[in-house]
Design goal:
single chain, 102 residues, mainly alpha, 59% helix, rod-shaped
């Protein structure tokens, strides 16, 4: 018999790639476990936190001279707005009755 040496068998993947993959998998597993144990909660932000602009309805009206009829209409509008802010249920009921009458 002749001395035939078998060919050298090389691993499919080098060892350092296997170690690297194991480290990455362990890191991902730790991340998943920590997220479940300590979930990230978003900070509670008030709804109007992004609304920092104040709209002034009377800006254009202040720059003009108003007639007596316009002044009366403006006063009535402000009174209605004030009533709607103070007693919204009554204003809603009043509007419902107006709509059903038509």
């Amino acid at each position: 018999m002749t001395d035939v040496m078998p060919p050298e068998i090389k691993p499919v993947l080098p060892v350092h790639w296997i170690v690297l993959a194991a480290v990455v998998l362990l890191a991902l597993l730790a991340l998943v476990v920590l997220r479940r144990r300590y979930p990230i909660r978003p900070e509670e932000v008030p709804v109007a936190a992004g609304l920092d602009v104040v709209v002034d309805d009377d800006y254009e009206l202040k720059s003009q001279e108003l007639s007596p009829e316009e002044l009366e209409r403006l006063g009535m509008r402000k009174a209605i707005q004030k009533m709607a802010e103070e007693k919204p249920e009554e204003v809603a009921l009043l509007m419902k009755t107006w709509l059903t009458e038509d």
